[in-house]
Write a structure and sequence with these properties.
The complex is a heterodimer.
Chain A (H helix, E strand, L loop, with lengths): L7 E9 L9 E7 L3 E7 L4 E8 L5 E6 L2 H22 L5 H21 L4 E6 L4 E3 L6 H18 L44
Antiparallel strand pairs in A: 1-2, 2-3, 3-4, 5-6, 6-7
Chain B lengths: L7 E2 L6 E6 L34 E2 L6 E2 L5 E3 L2 E3 L1 H10 L8 E3 L1 H14 L4 H14 L13 H25 L1
Antiparallel strand pairs in B: 1-2, 3-4, 5-6
The chains are: A alpha+beta, B alpha+beta.
């Protein structure tokens, strides 16, 4: 009755919290199973919480750009300048060295935030929920993970679109990028549902 | 705006979005199957509902199940009792939504004791106890093996040996 699944680690990690000052933080990672995506949240007390998203149930990934990188770079830049000011004013003192180390640390953090690339939020949508994936907070990484998952999901759901009459014959959904019948993206107007209403 | 390689504005609010959609978005909701009534005395009937026709045996206990009692999970057909007991005993991994990682807990305690020697006389025995007590407990679903437990036992044992040696040296 027991079934063991081998998991492969997907890139990215992040913290899940309800709001900025929430003390109940859990570290989140994504793992790739044979037929599902596993979201592991490591909470307080070394308790892991699992959420499984079977490829056949995943409806969409939604990416939205955020300004986290800019905000943090402003914070680090301000701190670096503040740390550097007294050091310049009191050049020659012994603590100048320590302040310089602090400034260098802040500059290193700025460079780190800059190198890691633009930030985003990634949501995964299924038939019953829309969940944020905190491990995909970097755009480059999010796109990399989605590109890894796309062929697997497309393969798991490959039989459905070919059946006639599915969802009232809806053929407005373009093929998945990287999927078997992917066509190049063309500039398109707002997506419209079969009833004529804009989707999302 | 779906499945485009770059950002595209939301038609309603204008927010930049990139949406990758899959056929499941337009899949119709699957309909459940009603259990058939057993009209004649012949034939197999459900173990839990003797008036209903059995359609499949349980892969866990072998009882005959009607369409109502048949719980399909990863290609296996299970009765509600097997499903419940499998979940409680942790036999059905696909149903587990939480695990306590005792190996990480023991290793953390051992490392904390190593870093702060003044509290290691508390943390090292606890780490050793947790590691031995939960040696056979299941670890994380994604990270198998006993490497963390071995490290925890090694570090905690070393700390205890060092503490005993210090104690003997000081009070000799």
């Amino acid at each position: 009755m027991a079934s063991q699944t081998e998991y492969k680690k997907l890139p990215g990690r992040g913290n899940r919290r309800a709001h900025l000052f929430d003390l109940k933080v859990s570290r989140s990672r994504l793992w790739l199973g044979s037929d599902h995506l596993l979201c592991v949240d490591l909470g307080m007390g070394h308790v892991e919480h699992y959420k499984r998203f079977y490829f056949r149930d995943i409806q969409a990934f939604i990416l939205r750009p955020t300004s986290r990188r800019l905000s943090w770079n402003v914070v680090w830049c301000t701190l670096a300048v503040l740390a550097l000011l007294p050091a310049i004013m009191n050049a020659g003192e012994l603590w100048f060295l320590w302040v310089s180390i602090g400034t260098l640390f802040m500059i290193a953090m700025m460079v780190n935030w800059f190198i890691l690339g633009p930030t985003c939020t990634c949501h995964l949508r299924t038939g019953v929920q829309t969940l944020e994936l905190p491990s995909l907070q970097r755009l480059r990484r999010a796109r990399q993970v989605i590109a890894t998952l796309q062929p697997l999901i497309a393969d798991a759901q490959s039989g459905w679109t070919t059946e006639p009459g599915l969802a009232g014959g809806n053929s407005d959904i373009p093929p998945v990028i990287g999927g078997p019948d992917h066509r190049p993206a063309t500039p398109a107007g707002p997506a419209v549902s079969p009833s004529g209403n804009p989707m999302f | 705006m779906f499945n485009l390689p770059g950002w595209s504005p939301c038609p309603v609010c204008g927010t930049k979005l990139q949406i990758e959609v899959f056929p499941a978005l337009v899949r119709p909701v699957a309909q459940g199957t009603a259990a058939e009534l057993q009209l004649e005395d012949e034939g197999t009937v459900c173990f839990f509902h003797p008036q209903k026709k059995a359609i499949v045996p349980c892969d866990g206990c072998g009882r005959f199940l009607c369409a109502l009692c048949d719980c399909e999970l990863n290609g296996e057909h299970l009765c509600p009792a097997c499903l419940e007991s499998g979940k409680k005993k942790g036999q059905v991994t696909a149903l587990e939504n939480k695990r306590t990682c005792y190996d990480s807990m023991a290793l953390t305690l051992a490392i904390v004791g190593l870093l702060i020697l003044s509290i290691s006389f508390i943390t090292a025995p606890i780490a050793l106890f947790i590691a031995i007590r939960h040696w056979n407990s299941p670890t994380s679903i994604v990270r198998r093996g006993k490497a963390r437990l071995r490290w925890a036992v090694t570090l905690a044992s070393l700390e205890i040996i060092v503490l005993i040696t210090l104690f003997i040296t000081v009070f000799k």
